[in-house]
Amino acid sequence: MLLGEFHRGRRLRRTPTLREMVRETELRPQDLIQGYFVVETADKDFERPIPSLPGQSQFSVDRLVARVGTAMDKGLRSLILFGLPEKKDPEGSGAYAADGIVQQAVARLKDAYPELVVVTDVCLCEYTSHGHCGLVDAHGEVQNDPTLDLLAQTAVSQARAGADIIAPSDMMDGRVAAIRLALDEAGFTHIPILSYAVKYASAFYGPFREAADSAPAFGDRRGYQMDPANVREALREAAADLAEGADMLMVKPAMPYLDVVRLVRDNFDCPVAAYQVSGEYAMLKAAIANGWLDPKRSVLEALTGIKRAGADCIITYFAEEVLEWL
Q1: pTM, two decimal places
Q2: CATH classification of 26-325 is 3.20.20.70, yes or no?
Q3: pLDDT of residue 3
Q4: Of the N and C termini of the chain, which has fewer Cβ atoms inside 10 Å?
Q5: CA distance 132 to 255
Q6: Cβ–Cβ under 8 Å, residues 177 and 155
Q7: Which residues share a beta bridge with 314?
């Protein structure tokens, strides 16, 4: 073989400027959605660190507004809210109350920062006394159809508070159709739905359940969240949600399901989101704390990998940190 007859890929890796010039995937501030936990409390100055999510806290509305303002100074453009109500009941009434904790937070955030994109999670698990994502009958079975009206009420109440994007995460069949109809009838035809279309029954949700106080009191969620072994089912779920009126699709979790992110990206011509969930965040944080991984390089590599797989936007608890690096 004569010199020069083989491929010289290193030519385009020689300097930082060359590498940037030919970079195929770019992680941008507008790609990142920071998750926040807001607590219904009389203590306006409330902030409680979450042990399993180092660097993350539960906030009162006032503290949340201040924290978000600081993050916006760094470049934050969007967030997603999870609420912890003062009281829970079997129907999860705090989820759809006009003065619910998320509704309060949305109104305050949009009043303070009109340009901020506020995404609201639609589910009952944080508000039900039993911790499941829907109504439960006397036999402990989660009831699909009776839950749909409550999810629709939740979506409308959040839209009235000022939410920019509604994101149902409950995994009840038909919930996108129910929410779309309710939003349209209430005059919110302009509000998009980001559906947790492909949400797996994952072990990586553990820290979130502590952060949102949403662990099931009995059983588990495998009867409505997807089996981690299935991938063709993801296409059926995504197609169904688009047909029902979803504007964007989400895959959750991200890291163990990058193949699914790519499959959804290749099969559907709509924006695709991926959720780097609490367990993914906690693993990286633990390795970083032990000195086993470089913080900036490992986090940016993980997030770039999610985007390279096909995600247009990423929900991540690292958003605030990453904005400082970008």
Answers
A1: 0.94
A2: yes
A3: 62
A4: N
A5: 25
A6: no
A7: 32, 274
Q: How far apart are CA 224 and CA 297, in angstroms?
A: 36
The letter for the amino acid at 111 is D
* pLDDT profile of the chain (326 residues), mean per 10: 76 94 94 97 95 96 98 97 93 94 98 98 92 87 93 98 97 96 98 97 90 78 90 97 98 98 98 97 98 98 98 98 95
Which has the closest alpha carbon to 84: 76, 99, 94?
Answer: 94
Spell 85-110 as b/e; 16+ CB within 10 A means b: beebeebbbbbbbeebbbbbbbbbbb
- Sequence length of the chain is 326
Residue 25 CA: distances (Å) to CA of 21, 148, 150, 200, 222: 11, 39, 40, 26, 34
Q: Whole-angstrom Cα distance, residue 161 to residue 21?
A: 43
For residue 2, what pLDDT is reported?
61
Looking at the DSSP bridge assignments, the partners of residue 199 are 252
C-alpha–C-alpha distance, residues 252 and 135, integer Å? 23
pLDDT of residue 214: 79
Q: Are 311 and 275 in contact (CB under 8 A)?
A: no
pLDDT of residue 134: 87
Q: Which of 74, 88, 110, 199 is catalytic?
A: 199
Burial of 150 (C-beta count, 10 Å sphere; 0-12/13-18/19+): buried
Which residues have C-beta within 8 Å of that of residue 303, sequence separation ≥ 6? 27, 32, 276, 314, 316, 318, 322
Among 87, 88, 252, 285, which one carries the catalytic annotation? 252
Do 37 and 50 form a contact (C-beta atoms < 8 A)?
A: yes
User: Is residue 241 within 8 Å of residue 195, measured between CB atoms?
Assistant: yes
Tokens of 319: 């958003």
Instruction: Establish whether 44 is a catalytic residue.
Output: no
Half-sphere exposure of 322 (CA within 13 A, CB side): 25
Domain ranges of the chain: 26-325
